[in-house]
Amino acid sequence: MDEKRKVIFSGIQPSGELTLGSYMGAIRNWVDLSGQYDCYYCIVDMHAITVRQNPAELRRRSISQLAQYIACGLDPEKNTLFIQSHVAEHAQLGWVLDCYTMFGELSRMTQFKDKSAKNAENINAGLFTYPSLMAADILLYQTDLVPVGSDQKQHVELSRDIALRFNGIYGDVFTIPEPFIPQAGARIMSLTTPQNKMSKSDKDPGGCIYILQKPEEILRCFKRAVTDSDTERCVRYDPEAKPGVSNLMQIYACATGKTFPEIEAEFDGKGYGDFKTAVGESVVELLRPIREKTEDLMKNKDYLSSILRSGAEKASRTASRTLRKVYKKVGFVER
Ligand code: ATP
Ligand code: LTN
Question: Which of 27, 42, 144 has the most ligand 2 atoms within 8 A of CB, as the residue to mutate?
Answer without folding.
Answer: 42
